[in-house]
Structure formats: structure tokens, C-alpha cells
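User:
Note these C-alpha cells:
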Amino acid sequence: MDKAEIIKLATEIGIAAAIKHIEQEKNKEIKSRHSKRLYNTKLLLQNYNVLKDHCENSISNLQEITHTEKAIDILDSLDSSDGTYIESIKRSTTRTYIILAHIDVMMELYKAYCESSNRPEETRRYRVMQAAYIDDLKMTEVCKQENMDRSTYFRDINEISQKLSGFIFGIDGLSVMRQR
């Protein structure tokens, strides 16, 4: 093998390794984004009533809100570490209104999805979501109400979070759900 062939072979091997590395980094970024969105979905559900109370008791009123921001952009920036999350109370309330309006619509879509399903576990999951996050019942109360054990409750909570993440974040949430 002469020098030119060795250089060509080394170049091809190097390019193949670089492409593989770039694909791995891209997949890592997709998984990271999904993890962040799933975490944010769970956090929003857990704090749903607190956020509602915040909006209902804020000094700002709904007429003052400008809808220039999109819910998905706000949701994606929730855990931004560049300091932009430190902002005025009015701006925070505005963003909370927008997020909650989006979540309310997505919860209604999720309800319709569950009710139109022929699977009884889907309608149960909607009831579990309603009881756990909207009605703010304790896990033991939900389990008793639905006549289920703790493992089913936690499995339902994870499934609810996955599906709602798809509804809330759109196609990015759905593409990762397909990979599961």
C-alpha cells in the first residue's frame, strides 16, 4: 500500500468516525430535550393548582396580557440557566397565563383522546390525572377511588406524563414516544 492509499483510507476512516460521533451527539441532544420536556410536564402537572392560584390572585389582569409569546417557546425556556428567568412579577404572571391556557387546551385534547379510546385504561388514566393533579388528591386516595395498587398508579402517572408531553410539546414529544 502506497502513501496515497494510506492517506485516502485514513481520511475515509476519519470521516466515518466523525459522522458517527455527530449522529451520537445529535441523538444525545434529542434524548436530553425529551427528558427536559418530560420533566417540565411532570413539574407543571404537580404545580398546576399553585400556578392557577397564582394567576387568579395576581394583581395583573388578563386584559393586560399581550399574546406575543408562544406557549411552546415559554415552556422550552423554563429551565434556562442564562438568568433570563429572573424577570418582573407581571411578566411572570403573563407567561404563566399563557402556559396554563395552553395546558388547559392540551388537557381537554387528552380528555377527548382518552374518552374516544376503546381502552378502559385510557379513561382510567384521565380520571387518575384529574384526581391527582386537578383535584389534588393524595396517591392513596386515588388508588382507593380507582381500586388499584400503587404500582398501577405510578405506571399510569408515567404514561400520563408521556402522553401529555406529546400533547404539550407537539411533534418533538411524539417523535420520542415512538422511540420508546
